[in-house]
Design brief:
- There is one protein chain.
- By secondary structure, the protein is an alpha+beta fold.
- The chain contains two helices and two strands, in the order E-E-H-H.
- The protein has one domain (12-49, 61-87).
- It has helices at residues 37-47, 64-87, and strands at residues 12-19, 25-34.
- Strands 1-2 form a two-stranded antiparallel ribbon.
- The longest helix is centred in the C-terminal third of the chain and has 24 residues, at 64-87.
- The radius of gyration is 33 Å and the shape is elongated.
């Protein structure tokens, strides 16, 4: 007695859950079954989402007054260092 199986199950199976534009999972799914790995890759690339670009935060420019205060502090620090070197 010889057994023959005619049912063939695919090697690859992929099931994707769909999301809305807020990123919440919906109740819809997409599935794909195949024996060909390249066909599976094409399906995935077509149906996978693309990540959103992150928004850049605006950086405030330094105010002229703040820059001048910092320069004055640096000058004082340098003068103190020079005085200590000359005293030794």
């Amino acid at each position: 007695m010889k057994l023959e199986f005619t049912h063939h199950s695919p090697t690859f199976e992929l099931v994707l859950k769909q999301r809305d534009f807020h990123g919440n999972v919906t109740n819809q799914i997409k599935s794909f079954k195949t024996d060909d790995a390249s066909a599976l890759e094409r399906f995935y690339l077509r149906n996978s989402g693309k990540p959103k670009k992150k928004k850049r935060k605006k950086v405030e420019a330094a105010k002229k007054e703040d820059v001048q205060k910092i320069i004055q502090e640096v000058d004082k620090y340098i003068d103190e260092k020079d005085k200590k070197k000359s005293a030794n």
